[in-house]
Amino acid sequence: MPSGSDAAPTRVAFVLPPREVFTPDSAGAISRVVSRLAGATPGAVVIGRPIPKTTDLGRNRDAHSAEPAFEQTFANIRYEPAGNTTNLIRTLRRLNPDYIDIHQQPRLALALSYLLPGAKSMLFLHNDPLTMRGLKTRVSRSLMLRRLHRIVCVSKYLQSRYMTGLTGPGPTILPNPLTLSELPPPAAERERNILFVGRIVHDKGPDLFVNAFCLARRKLPGWTATMMGGDRFGPRSPETQYVAHLRGAAAKAGITFTGPRPHADILAAMASAAIVVIPSRWPEPFGLVALEAAASGAVVITSGQGGLPEAAGPGALHIDIASDDVSGLAAAMIAIVQDEKSWPELTEAGLEHARKFDSPVIAAALENLRASG
Question: How many domains does the chain have?
């Protein structure tokens, strides 16, 4: 690569997992992360599945659900629909990138390191590597470390999982980014509302939220609770049997259940609610919702599973929910409500923590990773 002011810009291709939809209204966590990184990388190309014609990068969405800054980010990114693996390889050969950032696909990353030796392949892991094909054995994980330019984990928790049974240098940690300029400003006076945001699936603990609020609500006069989410990302999530069950349980508990909502509505709710609860049962690989809540100025309560403490930061409360015991979660709700004087300190700690994850900061760190080694 040439150096100096006349150097050609680095060509970077971001490769999405097959199930990820790269549209503002249907984007999952990985597509949102990639949009932020690609948006901060001049000349970057995102490669993934064909985009449904009905969405067209969000330009035909209803006006009420528009998220202008976020939508503009998607619209300004060059997108290449590759479809199957053969077409993906053809696309990459045509683009001839300097770096290929492959998200969540270990075996593809390894194959591309052989098929396209002129590019530097980097594997980004957003989930537990010990559950992923191509990384389940010590031998396979060791081979990846030797073969790829970089392996990037989004949290220390995932890095520790990757290094299970291994010694020596391991994957690099690069947290998920959050574009702070796209968030609505935190409300000066918070609503007396306790908010659950996330997928309505067992692993995310929405039933724990309902049970904890039921246990605590007699000591929470004047407070409300709200649940936002569906079985999948995006406002078109289906009404599964589990979602229907939680909708009924929430109604009995006096909790407002909105169902799936556009991401803009979720961010607005987090910017106004006093408390956001993330009671995940499973070890979260990172916990982007926790970071969004901290960046929105809410007091955050989590289960402390996996990467949640890293994402939520020092201002959050992390409660043990072993054996589905919600007494600690209920007690945390009550303690925060009854100690309103602590809110400014907790929210400022969350806001200060979130600044470290701003997209330009993380994108600069990624560029340094590409250039080093």
Answer: 2
